[in-house]
Amino acid sequence: MITPISLDFPLAKAEYLLTRVAEPGKGGDKRNYWQNILGFRSAEEIRKAILDEITVEKLKPQGMHPYGDRLVAIIQIDTPLGRSQSILTIWLVPFEAKIARFITAIPNHQKR
What we know:
Blueprint lengths: L5 E3 L2 H9 L10 H8 L5 H11 L6 E6 L2 E11 L5 E11 L4 E9 L5
Parallel strand pairs: 1-5
Antiparallel strand pairs: 2-3, 3-4, 4-5
């Protein structure tokens, strides 16, 4: 596995979290979670909240993906509603690259 040296989090990925409405049984309603439960109103807010807490050092390997190494990190983000929320972030380091690219973030239901 190649250790990434930087992070890439395009704003379009945060927009997806704020606008994606999933069908039942297809991964949950991302828009409801990020907008109604956590209180985020813009993709920029989501991106900033995640980038404020994530570092390359927090990323842990979680197997291979057809396009590279999959990494995860559990972080605590501050929400616009004044709460701290644990989320699981998922990243991909494409083969032969040194940049971890943001894939998605979901509620963390794992026990510490």
